[in-house]
């Protein structure tokens, strides 16, 4: 465990920054990991779901394991031990926690996938925590030989599209939770002032998620210009002023009466430039590489558990009518690619969405 603390003290040629609080937190994290494996998994192994990984949550978790293997191997080769600890332990722990939440409290985790996670993580942190890894390898996993001679775990090619789709799902759940709290809080404040409340009772509340799978309007023009102004060999763009000038000219021809929102365009421009420099020209496509409607539709059970209410996908333009008195909110904050809009309405139990 002492090596774990040293690995987290920093990379490169700078002096190590060994912090006792960090050391204590690392020891606590490893202790909790041991307890989880012994009590929650191995002691209740028969309650785990059998068969090959098949659900959306299974595939996401399996993909996260593959990504951790690749990134951790690269970090070790580059002698970036803090980065290796982040990718091979902390990020993998976070992926495990997300998987547990996605599977729910009814023990729906996949048996083979969980055991593979335990195997992989033990091998990934062996160079940093050899005693811990050997204990898990021999005593808990009942493996023969030593983990130090077990070799590096194999991995499939990571699916970066699936990684992006899952981030979109998790970010959307956070957004919906914030919008729900904001809408309910606004209704309660209105009630205190004597105004009519439109978002009660909560037990009949249902969510409508509005999705626009393609950028349109000024964002579409901006992306089309950026595609022409992006050099894929050097990963460089033409000057911002050149892109903005062309965008302004196009918008003034289309909507001469409207004001050009320079700051809003610059914010979007910078965000997409950074993405393109990171993952390439695909970041400038008008559509995301996954189906925005399919992702929430295939994870409605998870969204329901997270929000505590039913949520329905509203992809048809006529679905705006279903938001009732909140229809204006859809106009004020229309959905765009990667940014859904959620509205919460009261409804009768027998009403169909």
From TrEMBL:
Gene3D superfamilies tied to this protein: Isoleucyl-tRNA Synthetase, Domain 1
Keywords from the named record: Aminoacyl-tRNA synthetase, ATP-binding, Ligase, Nucleotide-binding, Protein biosynthesis
UniProt cross-references to InterPro entries, sorted A to Z: Leu-tRNA-synth_Ia_arc/euk, M/V/L/I-tRNA-synth_anticd-bd, tRNAsynth_Ia_anticodon-bd
Protein family according to the UniProt entry: Belongs to the class-I aminoacyl-tRNA synthetase family.
PANTHER family the UniProt entry points to: LEUCINE--TRNA LIGASE, CYTOPLASMIC (PTHR45794:SF1), LEUCYL-TRNA SYNTHETASE (PTHR45794)
Keyword Manganese annotated: no
Annotated signal sequence range: none
UniProt keyword Ligase, yes or no: yes
Chain's gene name: LOC104779263
Stated name of the protein: Leucine--tRNA ligase, cytoplasmic-like
Pfam family, one: Anticodon_1
Every Methionyl/Valyl/Leucyl/Isoleucyl-tRNA synthetase anticodon-binding domain range: 58-186
């Amino acid at each position: 465990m002492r090596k774990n603390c040293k690995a987290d003290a920093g990379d490169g040629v700078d002096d190590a920054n060994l912090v006792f609080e960090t050391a204590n937190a690392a020891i606590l994290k490893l202790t909790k990991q041991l307890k989880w494996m012994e009590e929650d998994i191995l002691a209740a192994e028969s309650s785990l779901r059998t068969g090959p990984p098949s659900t959306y949550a299974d595939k996401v978790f399996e993909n996260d394991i593959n990504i951790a293997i690749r990134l951790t191997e690269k970090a070790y080769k580059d002698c970036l031990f803090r980065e290796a600890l982040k990718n091979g332990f902390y990020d993998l722990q976070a992926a495990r926690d997300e998987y547990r939440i996605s599977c729910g409290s009814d023990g729906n985790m996949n048996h083979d996938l969980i055991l593979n996670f335990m195997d992989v993580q033990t091998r990934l942190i062996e160079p940093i925590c050899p005693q811990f890894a050997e204990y898990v390898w021999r005593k808990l996993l009942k493996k023969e030989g030593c983990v130090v001679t077990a070799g590096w775990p194999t991995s499939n090619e990571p699916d970066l599209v699936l990684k992006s789709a899952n981030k979109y799902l998790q970010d959307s759940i956070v957004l919906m939770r914030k919008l729900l709290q904001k809408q309910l809080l606004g209704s309660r404040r209105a009630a205190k002032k004597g105004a009519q409340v439109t978002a009660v009772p909560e037990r009949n509340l249902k969510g409508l998620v509005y999705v626009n799978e393609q950028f349109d309007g000024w964002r579409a023009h901006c992306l089309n210009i950026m595609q022409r102004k992006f050099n894929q060999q050097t990963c460089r763009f033409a000057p911002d002023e050149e892109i903005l000038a062309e965008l302004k000219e196009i918008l003034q021809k289309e909507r001469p009466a409207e004001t050009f929102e320079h700051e809003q365009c610059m914010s979007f421009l910078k965000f997409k430039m950074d993405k393109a420099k990171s993952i390439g020209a695909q970041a400038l496509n008008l559509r995301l590489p996954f189906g925005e409607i399919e992702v929430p539709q295939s994870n409605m059970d998870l969204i329901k558990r997270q929000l505590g209410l039913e949520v329905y996908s509203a992809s048809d333009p006529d679905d705006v009518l279903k938001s009732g008195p909140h229809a204006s909110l859809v106009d004020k904050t229309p959905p765009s690619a990667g940014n859904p809009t959620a509205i919460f309405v009261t409804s009768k139990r027998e009403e169909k969405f």
